[in-house]
Amino acid sequence: MTGLEGDGGPSVAVAVALLAVLVLAAGLGAVLRAVVTARVTASRSRRTRLLGTAWVNVPASASAAFALVLQLRLDLLPGEAPAAVAVAVVGVLGLCGGLSTYSTLALELSRSVLERRRRDLALQLGGVAVGLVAGLFGAGLAGVVLLLV
Amino acid sequence: MREHLPSGQVLLGVGIGGALGGAARVGAGLLAASWVPDLPVWVVLVAVNVVGSFAMGLLVARGGAWAAPALTTGLLGGFTSFSGWVLDVMRLAESSPLLGLLVLVGVPVAAVAACAVGLVAGGETT
């Protein structure tokens, strides 16, 4: 074991360390989102531009669901799991939290609503639906992995 | 292709903003749990997403330096979370399908309405 384990719950030191990992991963996720968003915004395809945040929200949802299901099914709770595993799980969840965004999605949707662009809104809502399906896919994939391992 | 990438300075600002936004989201959860110990976790994320969407509309409508990528893409983008909402919907669908459906439909409606109010309050005209 690694010394990061606690009795029942994470110690203050472990909690601070995991919070630092979470925050750094969230920052990295935001940088990745900015890079992807810049590429999407510069795209010649209007459909690509309209889908906007779906390009980051979909993979983030799938990855977060995958990590969370593994964490819950394997009881990889912070303070109890080996440090490397706890850092990996918290890192993936932090990265996904920083990579995905709701406020920018709301901005895209609200502009389509205010400007009465129904077709654009339908396409963007399709992106939201794909994000939800991606979450289910990630959770299902984690279930399959657990069956195989 | 490189001209489509944000500058290093912008990316640094977005990264710091995103880290602070993520910390603020976690902090909001911890603060809410200390005030109301029985408060379900999903309630905090709903509030975070709706408040963050309103702030996004307001900042973007105000424009200028306030709409800097560090604040909008970074801070507010990191503060709110789509993947967190998806996870909440999935967890609630298992334990309480009706509540899951409410969060599934209600959060996007509330967030879009909040953002639209922010845009209008900030003076953006369509």
Report a brief summary of the structure:
The complex is a heterodimer of chains A (149) and B (126). By secondary structure, chain A is mostly helical.
Question: How many separate helices of chain B?
Answer: 5
- Low-confidence regions of chain B: none
Mass-distribution shape of chain A: elongated
Q: Which percent bin holds the helix content of chain A?
A: over 70%
Described by strand count, sense and barrel closure, the largest sheet of chain B is: none
Topology pattern of chain B, helix = H, strand = E: HHHHH
Structural class of chain A: mainly alpha
**Radius of gyration of chain A over all CA atoms, rounded:** 18 Å
Question: Largest sheet of chain A, if any?
Answer: none
Report strand % of chain A: under 5%
Key phrases:
heterodimer; A: 149 residues; mainly alpha; 0% strand; elongated; disordered N terminus; B: 126 residues
Overview of the structural elements:
The complex is a heterodimer of chains A (149) and B (126). With 149 residues, chain A is an all-alpha fold. Chain A contains six helices and no strands. Residues 1-6 of chain A have low confidence and may be disordered. By secondary structure, chain B is mainly α. In chain B, helix 1 (8-35) crosses helix 2 (41-62) and helix 2 runs antiparallel to helix 4 (82-95). Classes of the chains: A mainly alpha (149), B mainly alpha (126). Chains A and B meet through helix 1, helix 3, helix 4, helix 5 and helix 6 of A and helix 1, helix 2, helix 3, helix 4 and helix 5 of B.
